[in-house]
Amino acid sequence: MKIARTHADIGCMRRREVFHAIATADLVVPHPWRLRGVVYFRGGMGPSRWLCIAVQYDEGMNGVVRTAFARRRLPGWA
Question: Would residue 78 count as lying in a domain?
Fold first, then answer.
């Protein structure tokens, strides 16, 4: 999985933990440049303050997790 290869700090998280973070997100915002993209932020999970998960949806609203990574703070566009 790309997340485990490129973001070793959260690579040990199980898929169900990532899906749980999406389902219980503290903040949900449109992706700043992906059409039908959504970014989910969940506090208190992972090695940093925020877990950030980017999901891309198709026309049928089927989602694919594109990436997930830890952040110390929310980005300026969130």
Answer: no
Task: State the pTM of this model.
Answer: 0.79
Over the stretch 13-49, which tens digit does the pLDDT of each residue have?
Answer: 677 888 899 999 999 999 877 788 999 999 987 677 8
Q: Which residues pair with 43 in a beta bridge?
A: 50
Taking the C-alpha atoms of residue 63 and residue 41, their distance in angstroms, rounded to an integer, is: 16
In this structure, are residues 18 and 53 in contact, taking their beta carbons and an 8 Å threshold? yes
Q: Is residue 76 domain-resident?
A: no
Number of domains present in the structure of the chain: 1
| 26 three-class SS | coil
CA distances from 1 to 10, 35, 45, 72 (A): 12, 23, 19, 23
